[in-house]
Design a protein that fits this description.
Layout lengths: L1 H24 L2 H5 L10 H24 L5 H22 L6 H20 L2
Length: 121
């Protein structure tokens, strides 16, 4: 089970790191291509979401890998669950249902890591 948790956390971390860096560094018009929702929010909010994704990505791996404050790993995973729940709400409100499964999958993967790490698997 531990290997599965590391694989899930690693894949989530890579994804959130890449998407977070994009939200933090790209102009709104470049983000708009794949993320139409950015027009509904101030650019500062988009940047803060990117920063939260980067922090979550780092939090999934570094605390447990280094042994420094390992409780932060399941906490980061829980925060990513909340982030995905909010993303699902935004996409449902915008009627962007075709790719909603991606958000649900990310939510479930983060929940798996959170539960697994809190349970000590």
């Amino acid at each position: 089970m531990n290997i599965g948790l590391w694989v899930a956390a690693g894949l989530l971390a890579l994804l959130y790191l890449a998407v977070g860096v994009a939200k933090l560094t790209r102009r709104r018009d470049r983000l708009r291509t794949g993320m139409g929702w950015v027009d509904d929010f101030p650019v500062l909010v988009v940047r803060l979401i990117g920063l939260a994704e980067i922090a979550g990505a780092l939090g999934l791996i570094l605390p447990l890998a280094t042994g420094v404050q390992p409780w932060l790993t399941p906490t980061a995973a829980t925060c990513l669950v909340v982030l995905q729940a909010l993303a699902i709400a935004v996409h449902v409100r915008r009627r962007e249902l075709a790719q909603l499964w991606v958000n649900v999958l990310l939510l479930l993967a983060a929940a798996f890591v959170a539960v697994g790490r809190f349970a000590g698997w």
